[in-house]
Amino acid sequence: MKSIRGYLMTRLVAGAALALALAGIALFVAVTRALEAQFDRNLVDRVLGFASILFQTEDEVNFEFSEQLMPEYADEERPAYFELRFASSGDGPGTLLECSPSLGAGDLVLALEPDASPRYWTAPLPDGRAGRYVAQLIEVHHVYPEEGPDRPQAATVQVVVARGTEELVAAERRVLLISAAAFLALIALIAGFARLAVERGLEPARRLAAKLDAVEAEHPPAHLDVGPLPAELAPVLGVVTVAQRYLRDRQDLADRGAQLVRDVGR
């Protein structure tokens, strides 16, 4: 027979585990989305960084790339990639302006057509790693001469940046492990507090059960002193009191009958 303690503990811990699991899933999704949004913002910052080092003199556009300042684009193990092309007016790709040393003679394949706003997509990198891409059309800001009738029309450059997502995946896994550890710790803590609460809550029932177990059917007491009881146990005590009165009446009747038999026998 299942005990009340086990029933209550199972319900309390299971309910808390369900609530914590739902909250943990919601928190994990929110944190991972925030990490992914931050990763995308970092990609856009790189695009804007490239835009800041584009210079146009008359019709010639120059890009001042420094491998010392941006070593991640020349890293041999886990490189990032970029590609700058003049915006195409036809179906084919525009003329290549500059690309990262890590790209070599290859091209970055576009999954989405670039626009004035950033366009993101996920695809394998040229070296086969999982990657995240961003593409955006940027108008050259530094144009010379800056003013006057000889100022040329600013060129539009298509900037594509790609990075591996291994750091993002590692961060999401750390969040998952921390969430799982916190979940288990909270469940253990809740189980401990629930056990204490159940034990204290069942104390009146244990007192009543101990008193009932000590009752002798042949000599039922006139009153059970079990101390204060919660309202839920009051009907039980009332039934027990009625049963005791019934047993005492039967015992009295049996005693009188026995006495009557003895008197008649004399």
In summary, what is this structure?
This protein is 48% helix and 17% strand. The chain has 266 residues and is of the alpha+beta class.
Question: What attributes characterize this protein structure?
Answer:
266 residues, alpha+beta, 2 domains, five-stranded antiparallel beta sheet, three-stranded mixed beta sheet, 8 strands, 48% helix
Word description of this protein:
The chain is an alpha+beta fold and 266 residues long. It has two domains: 10-172; 207-265. Helix content is 48%, strand content 17%. The strands form two sheets. Strands 4-3-8-6-5 form a five-stranded antiparallel β-sheet. The chain has a three-stranded mixed β-sheet with strand order 2-1-7. A hairpin with a 2-residue loop joins β1 (54-57) and β2. The longest helix is centred in the first third of the chain and has 49 residues, at 4-52.
